[in-house]
Amino acid sequence: MNFSSARQYFYQEIQQPDESINLARAALYIAQEEYPNLDPEEYLNALDIMATDLEERLPSSRYPLRMIQSINQYLYDELGFTGNKIDYYDPRNSFFNDVIERKTGIPITLALVYMEVGKRIDFPMVGIGMPGHFLIRPDIADIEIFVDAFNGGEVMFPQDCQERLSQIYQQSVTLQPEFLAVVSKRQFLARMLTNLKYIYLNRQDLEKTLSVVERILLLFPGVSLELRDRGLLYYQLGYFTQAVEDLQIYLTKVPEAEDANVIRQLLSKLDS
């Protein structure tokens, strides 16, 4: 496959062991496909400067809640970062350079700003893949303090997370342990890309949707649903040979899938 330079950099970054992946770099390589002239170093330097400024404002006692309070005051009160509630599905909310420049984004990209600044001041945070709303928490064993980077760094406890889930799904939701599980760096990037995937799908921008699915499959090769979706995108874009290959692999992997008959009919049409 002929990768763009941005795709090559992304691929190289994610070939490392998960703990060695630089999330900020990988996120900037995602953005670089949209902005070919983007210089990742410019934005990594911006994060370094933020952390240096913040260091001067930190409390002498580095208890987690005090650290969170200081980070919140700096990012949200001083710099003006805010969740983009007005135009949530603007693709710029998923491009890390835009989020740093515009100081607005969605939960996962604002979480990344928070995590990157936290890492630089020796207060590491980890991503929490709560359904429907991404959170972070200090990387401290057994701590049950969560931070909502989208809502001004609001501090949340498990009960608050359950209430937030019930609000999102507009029905009572029982909090399951896996809802507050830490995500790997690959899972983090896949969730970022999945947001972009559905934005582009809703806009019927099939070429860009395909480029996103391709990158999800670089992170997690062989994922059945992504193979199916890539096959369907190939079909819609007229790449019939590639479509047949992906859809046949999908049926081999999940022959009893709910949509298996629909896919078989499509393959019959392509073979005729």
Give structural notes.
The chain is mainly alpha-helical and 272 residues long. The chain contains 12 helices and 6 strands. It has helices at residues 5-14, 23-34, 40-55, 64-78, 96-102, 107-120, 158-169, 185-202, 206-219, 224-237, 240-253, 260-271, and strands spanning 82-83, 104-105, 125-128, 135-138, 146-148, 154-156. The strands form 3 sheets. A two-stranded parallel ribbon has the order 1-2. Strands 3-4 form a two-stranded antiparallel ribbon. Strand 5 (146-148) and strand 6 (154-156) form a beta hairpin. Helix 8 (185-202) runs antiparallel to helix 9 (206-219) and helix 11 runs antiparallel to helix 12 (260-271). The longest helix is centred in the C-terminal third of the chain and has 18 residues, at 185-202. The chain is globular and about 70 Å long.
